[in-house]
Design brief:
It contains 16 helices and no strands. It is mainly alpha-helical.
């Protein structure tokens, strides 16, 4: 289930740090954590579906201006950002390739959750995530070929199975939510509120899992790559919003494009790195997508907090203005 539900603590605790060859025997705690994450993500995506309407989904598909802009932002801004940052920090070889792989991945479930928090257009969010995931079948090999200059063996290693599973993990639970919203709309608000609460639990579990391995990750990822991991989501959020504003999308759509652009599917990135390179070549850099997941999550949550603060300020401002115009209510 995307980047949230495939975080094995065993992967993070691989003492040898030689690559993806880790033990397949999960501890009871890890199995429980994984199960909680899987169930929570199913609940979250069903709740996301409950905010969607078939008529609005069809409207986006019939007039795909927003989807087109979002996809161009996803596959235009992020790969170019990754390429420029790799050049700016003078990365070479496998380090530059890993950064480029992260930049070429489509959006994942995290973008849908963050869009829900900032009251984005959830119909556009799911349609865009689905479209970018489908397009990943062709765009990832093409972009990696262009930016990596035909890195040997990379195009053949694109994890098509993982891409398909990621797409199903989005569409199936969202489809259930859409049907619930269509046939039992009275339950939609309750399910959405439950989904928001559960998503906070899932985010907390992800943060704890990554933080637990933080010392080990920091010990193997060089400072320039840490700087890129910090800057790449930030540029994605910023330019995604600017790009959608330039094409005069509505505010909820702009916020959605912002999140969809800045959030990469870290699980797909890790899968591609694992299957593309032998452990002797990639070494500990297979952990790098976890750094990207952490930075885009923390920066995304910062955007959410700023949005909530702005909304609260607007509500207070409107209340003061209303009371000033209606002194009899004071």
């Amino acid at each position: 289930m995307d980047e949230f539900t495939n975080m094995s603590v065993l992967d993070l605790r691989n003492d040898s740090l030689n690559g993806p060859n880790v033990s397949s025997l999960d501890s009871p705690t890890e199995r429980i954590t994984k199960s909680i994450l899987i169930v929570s993500m199913l609940v979250v995506m069903v709740s996301v579906g409950c905010t969607m309407e078939l008529t609005k989904i069809m409207a986006h598909l019939k007039k795909p201006k927003g989807v087109g802009i979002a996809v161009v932002a996803q596959y235009g801004i992020m790969p170019l950002t990754a390429f420029c940052l790799a050049k700016a920090f003078d990365l070479t070889g496998i380090s530059a390739t890993v950064v480029l792989i992260c930049g070429c991945c489509p959006a994942g479930i995290m973008s849908n959750i963050l869009s829900l928090f900032i009251k984005g257009d959830m119909n556009l969010s799911i349609v865009m995530t689905s479209c970018s995931t489908v397009l990943a079948f062709g765009m990832m090999p093409l972009l990696l070929f262009l930016y990596c200059q035909g890195f040997e063996g990379l195009q053949e290693a694109v994890p098509y199975k993982n891409i398909a599973l990621s797409l199903l993990s989005i569409l199936i639970p969202c489809g259930i939510g859409i049907l619930l919203n269509h046939y039992r709309p009275q339950y939609s608000n309750i399910i959405t509120k439950v989904g928001l609460s559960v998503s906070l639990i899932a985010i907390l579990l992800v943060l704890l899992t990554i933080i637990e391995a933080g010392e080990k990750i920091l010990s193997v990822v060089v400072p320039p790559m840490l700087a890129i991991a910090f800057l790449m989501p930030m540029f994605g959020y910023f330019f995604g919003y600017i790009f959608s504003t330039a094409f005069k999308l509505k505010q909820p759509e702009r916020r959605t494009v912002m999140m969809e652009t800045g959030c990469q599917n870290g699980k797909l990135c890790m899968a591609l790195i694992k299957v593309a390179f032998p452990s002797a070549v990639v070494g500990p850099l297979f952990l790098y997508p976890l750094v990207i997941i952490l930075t885009q999550l923390l920066e995304g949550l910062l955007v959410v907090l700023l949005f909530w603060a702005y909304q609260s300020w607007q509500q207070r401002k409107n209340k003061v203005g209303y009371e000033a115009g209606h002194p009899e209510v004071c």
